[in-house]
Amino acid sequence: MTVQSEQIERQSGIAMWRQIADAIRAGLAGPLVDADGKLPPEKVLAERFGVNRHTVRAAIRALAHEGVVQSHQGRGTFVRRKRRLTYPIGQRTRFSQGLEGQAANRSTELLAHGREQAPADIARALDIETGTGVVRLESVGLADGVPVSRATYWFDAERFGTIADVFARSGSVTRALAQLGVTDYVRAWTRIEARHGAVDDLDHLRLSPGAIVLVTEAVNADMDGRPVQYSLTRFAADRVSLQVGGD
Amino acid sequence: MTVQSEQIERQSGIAMWRQIADAIRAGLAGPLVDADGKLPPEKVLAERFGVNRHTVRAAIRALAHEGVVQSHQGRGTFVRRKRRLTYPIGQRTRFSQGLEGQAANRSTELLAHGREQAPADIARALDIETGTGVVRLESVGLADGVPVSRATYWFDAERFGTIADVFARSGSVTRALAQLGVTDYVRAWTRIEARHGAVDDLDHLRLSPGAIVLVTEAVNADMDGRPVQYSLTRFAADRVSLQVGGD
DNA sequence: TCTGGTTGTCTATAACAATAGATAAATTGG
DNA sequence: CCAATTTATCTATTGTTATAGACAACCAGA
Questions:
Q1: ipTM greater than 0.95, yes or no?
Q2: Which fold has domain B16-79?
Q3: Chain A closest-CA separation from residue B165 CA (Å)
Q4: Taking CB atoms and an 8 Å cutoff, what residues of chain A touch B15?
Q5: What pLDDT, on the 0 to 100 scale, is given for residue B33?
Q6: Choosing a second label site near B73 at 20 to 30 A (CA), which of B22, B41, B44, B124?
Q7: Nearest nt (C1') to B57 (CA)?
């Protein structure tokens, strides 16, 4: 992707240290860092962004808190993660398989689950009546120990009432559905939006306030075309890109 | 989409008026506004967000500047645009056709064009040698007079050296390509990211600083599979959603 | 071991963001 | 027309953000 030399603006309602943190984070893959993953010294960064060194320090402090960089007194500040994960979206979209080869360890963690009555939009997506019982799962997807996605899944309670237990044991939606009789499924549609992360999401994704999340809203259907699962997934926008088609 | 009651945070590096502006903008389609498109009074909003009325006013001032809402003394504050455009992404992705039925007037405006030598990433996408001459077009896409996308296109100069003129006259990539012998093309792949808008983009999209842009990086290929066009499109994230498959 | 380069910490000041309260001006509905 | 509702404007105060300068602590290499 072509590098856009991100400028910062004063009096924009966004603190300059935050804008600089965002700019540094976005530029980590580019010419900002050298081969060793070392950032330019604070003094240089301050000159480049046209701000005081203390302001740059506030930005770096935020990035260090996020786990993106790490500073060492006397040595410099170093990037901890560089590559952005590319997450394919298509007919056969699955979380773990999509990241094969990009991350050594991939896992999904179940945060919570419960039953509720389907609100109108979810009922429509699952092609059931509004108010029908649905199971909701809340999960976090990790790649190499770093959280990349925060998903909420809904299933028809009548068909998949026990999926929470199965999911908790197997740690995978695909495997859980397989055990409940859905041996194969395809992605019916995916809608993609972007917004600032909600507090809960930022928390689980270890992002700082103001960070962007890519939101995918999707429905998976079984081979008969019946909707099986409705999901709302929030990706840490600076850790992933979504790809439709290609390679 | 399920509404997330967006919370606001203090001392996050993002001014509260900006967080509130973002929250209001995100909630415009929801229960925040009544049937007439009228926002709750400033006093009520201030209570709901737990801030002073002046802070809400700062948020509304920013939204009014963006053109999202309009205030009238004594009457209230009203939403000017409500619906989010859904932009389909698939094999036959085209800008104007995808928005048919969603906006009465759709147009594309050519901002600038020029020739340059292809950098490595663009050359790879177009399957040509690095340094080969390419034509670059800069454009803005509008729906009902509101800018929704800011695109940069690259074409192989050898095949499409005159495309800037043709595009300027026809106002459409599809028609311009047709006149240059590419009667049909398909979307080879699309990659989607989200980030804070660069200054230039915010300017053309009439967004305020800190706004989010959805970035699609895509390649269109002719029916022989030869890449025809590489594009980098920035959508105003609060005005569009991207949809893959479905309806 | 010394020197230059780098991050860490401290103090002080100026600019901006948020709160608080009061009052004016415009609109709507009775 | 009057009263209630709502946005617009003003003053004042407090807390957060950004700037400025100085110096300490630490590291790597000569």
A1: no
A2: Arc Repressor Mutant, subunit A (1.10.10)
A3: 25
A4: 13-15
A5: 78
A6: B22
A7: D7
